[in-house]
Amino acid sequence: MKKIINKQLHILVSNMEQLKAAVSMNMRPQRLYIDYHMLLDEVPSLVEQVSDDIDIYVALPYMMRNETGLEGIRDIQRIWKSCSSFSKGFLVRNLEELAFLSLNEDGTFDGRIICDYGIYMWNHGAADLFLGQMRVDEGCIPYELNRHELGEFLKSVDGKADYVFSSCIYGYIPMMVSAGCVKKTMNNCSGRFGTNYTAYDGITDRKNNSMKVLTDCRQCLNIIYNSVPLSLHKQIESLSKENGITAFRIDLTTESGRDAKLILNFWEELLEGGRGEAPYKEYTTGHYKRGTE
User: Fold this and answer.
1) Where are the alpha helices (DSSP H) in the chain?
2) In angstroms, what CA-CA distances link 208 with 49, 54, 214?
3) How far, in Å, CA of 255 to CA of 15, rounded?
4) Helix, strand, or coil here: 271?
5) Cβ–Cβ under 8 Å, residues 201 and 213
6) CB 200 within 8 A of CB 213
């Protein structure tokens, strides 16, 4: 396999151990997305240190809640106040966050806005809306597009140099984001409503697949992740030929620091042209080959 040098490498981290694994790579990532939980109380010194040669963005929550005890907008304002000196901007996960940042009349936000895959840019019309009319700097290819649909979409926006897209090549996909907390349902609430507290639990589906569930008490929500990660390592050559994709993204969520290091080492070797064995046996290619029915 030829060395893949035509794409940037972006990495999303959710805890300090994953961050340490990311910054220790020989292949230095061009961008790091830092989960907002890591920046609510105080900014880790390592984040500021690496911002000299790595672009730092804050990954906002999948759901922004503003009600008694939950202050999503104030959290965004506070994070930007403490991080604007070294952070480039935000990874936005929903339309409410996008509206707040892009339509902010008082001009308090002057950073860059990256739309995550959940803000769907299925076609050129959606791309024109978000990247053209609204103040959005980049988009992320939706998971739902198969290889053919992806090619057609990129052709439809070809020639628009300011339309920039990344594609996620590894990560556990959220199957559901819910304000109906599984702990509350089981009468086992953590009692940390509105605090900067996260924990992982597990549920088992009817096919006996075990899925991790993130409890985010700051937003009082759950994220149920797929039982196996998305991994497009066998499709990386064809993806690398898509000129409309400027960056590959690796999302680290439930992984331990040790697993994060193994995963990043594997992808680093692969992107350098190697053929190492993936450190995980089970994975999915999502809709890349089969599409959405």
Assistant:
1) 16-23, 45-50, 72-83, 95-102, 124-127, 147-156, 182-185, 236-240, 257-271
2) 44, 41, 19
3) 9
4) helix
5) yes
6) yes
**Nearby residues of 168 by Cβ (< 8 Å), 6 or more positions away:** 117, 140, 141, 143, 230, 248, 249, 250, 251
Query: Which helix or strand (DSSP H or E) is residue 160 part of?
Result: none
To 10 degrees, the CA torsion angle through 288, 245, 17, 264? 70
Q: Rounded to whole angstroms, what are the CA distances from 29 to 43, 61, 264, 287, 292? A: 20, 22, 11, 26, 31
CB-CB contact of 228 with 282 (8 Å): yes
Q: Following DSSP, what letter does each residue of 176-203 receive, concatenated?
A: EEESS-HHHHTT---S-TTSS-EEEEEE
From CA 125, how far away is CA 204, in angstroms rounded?
39
b/e sequence 35-65, b meaning 16+ C-beta within 10 Å: bbbbbeeebeeebeebbeebbbbbbbbbbbb
Q: Residue 39 is which amino acid? A: L
Per-residue pLDDT of the chain (293 residues; tens, 9 = 90+): 456 567 999 999 999 999 999 999 999 999 999 999 999 999 999 999 999 999 999 999 999 888 888 989 999 999 999 999 999 999 999 999 998 898 766 666 889 999 999 999 989 999 999 999 887 999 999 999 999 999 999 999 998 888 999 999 999 999 999 988 888 887 888 899 999 999 999 889 888 989 999 999 999 999 999 999 999 999 999 999 998 999 999 999 999 999 999 999 999 999 988 888 999 999 999 988 775 54
Residues in the chain: 293
Please report, for residues 35, 208, 212, the alpha-carbon distance to residue 40 in angstroms, rounded to integers and kept in the order given.
10, 36, 23
Of 14, 21, 72, 18, give the one whose Cα is nearest residue 39. 14
Distance CA 264, CA 11 (A): 9
- 88, 55 Cβ separation under 8 angstroms: yes
